[in-house]
Amino acid sequence: MDLENGVTRVLNSDYFGESKKGGLRMWNKKVYDLGGLALHAGLKVIPTAAGEKVVMIIGLSGTGKTTTTFTTQNGSLPVQDDFVALMPGGKVYGTENGCFAKTFSLDPDFEPNIYNAVTKPTAYLENVYQDEHGHVNFFEESYTQNGRAVFEMRDLERYRDPRDVGTVDVLLILNRNENIIPAVAKLDQEQAAAYFMLGETTGTSAGGAAEAGKFLRVPGTNPFFPLPHGLQGNRILELLDTHPIETYLLNTGRVGGPEGDERSKKVKIPHTSACVKAIVEGTITWTEDPDFGYLVAEEVPDFDDLELLQPRRLYERQGRMQEYRDIVERLKAERVARLREFPELDEAIVKVVG
User: Fold this and answer.
1) Are the CB atoms for 79 and 165 separated by under 8 Å?
2) What is the pLDDT of residues 158-176, one digit of tens each?
3) Strands 170-175 and 53-58: what pairing?
4) What is the value of pTM for the model shown?
């Protein structure tokens, strides 16, 4: 990889995606040199009584980035699905006039916009099951769960051109966790930079078979950043200081244990959608979490389960508080150790997770 001359050399690979990956690495470098940061993110605009809110959604493959981008709140419009550039002052730029969507368990009741685009004749499907009659089945996983579809933005009923989008108001950091991470938490600037750098999630087949079921930490949820990763954390902190952007952590996985553990609860798509709607409308009541210092919700309109908002309550009800405390201490130690791996990272970002 020759960053100075903009050249990527690929040897002994038959993976066509290397063409896009090479371009993204160079684009990451260009955006960084211009004072911004390239983000593995979706982008949408949501109308509210106080005006449109521009929402950026970052997360690893399988965390629900595409779903959260295309799920509708107040007639929201998707803008981008994969990579955007955040610049000083909150200005944002898109990269693609299309979408590369995960298709496994795609349900028209929960994700009608994506479903309608994916089932048009103009869409390209990859690793999607098709029966002898030509009918596709997005829930069939005997071959793989990592089904994908490519479609143009114009295949959606409604969308917004990124050239017509204002400055970013809200940044959502997604993870798919399985224990004590709440469905939504509000972060201050240093916390935002820390959780951005941690990039925590439980891997799914959307990231490849090797990642499925494993707990991952990927800095900035961006595998294409070609410079020392600590620079990402410092830059996002600098950018948040140039423009007021409210930042939130969203758990799109479970609380209380993995799938199959009858004590656990799933954070469902309607739960996340209710959180997003309430965030942009400013209708969440917050209280400080005593263990991690971020704000957790006391009440979210149209959200009916307080234990998903405050996982401590679930562990208390089930008599699992020692387990809860052990997880708290483990996460704090692991997070500090992880951030210490990036010598360039501002010390204020490291301290906030300890």
Assistant:
1) yes
2) 889 989 999 999 999 999 8
3) parallel
4) 0.88
